[in-house]
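Suppose you are handed a protein chain with no further information: no name, no annotation, nothing but its sequence. What can you learn? This example shows the usual starting point.
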Amino acid sequence: MLLHLHVHVWSLYLLQESGSVGWDPVHLWAQMGALAKAVVILLFIMSAYSIGVMIDRVMAYSAARKQSRQFAPAVAGALREGKLDEAVKIADRYKKSHLAKVVVLACRNSRRTRLVRKSLAKKSKPPSALSNALRRLSTPN
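A reasonable first move is to predict its three-dimensional structure. Written in structure tokens, the prediction is:
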């Protein structure tokens, strides 16, 4: 009971208004100590940096989406005809496009696979691990 009364008295003491205590930013700033002001300044700087990063990402993804939409019809014919070198040259013009980056990697991987198959065809007995890997690559999932 005594503890409850003690807590009640302290809460009344802390909640009573002394002078003009305001909750607006100017009064809050005036009431802060040096450490609290440093924390507020640091949080403000971090918030500004975060907003800058968000704006940069929106601009980057917007440019990538725009270039990918332009790249898809431009490269479709070359891929349909199996002209991988031409597809890579077309992709080089679309530096920001994520789709172009994926197509370039796929074309390079396809070229490497063909080169390995040609070199294995020239040999009489290919190593079994390599031929098994190539067989797994060539069969659809």
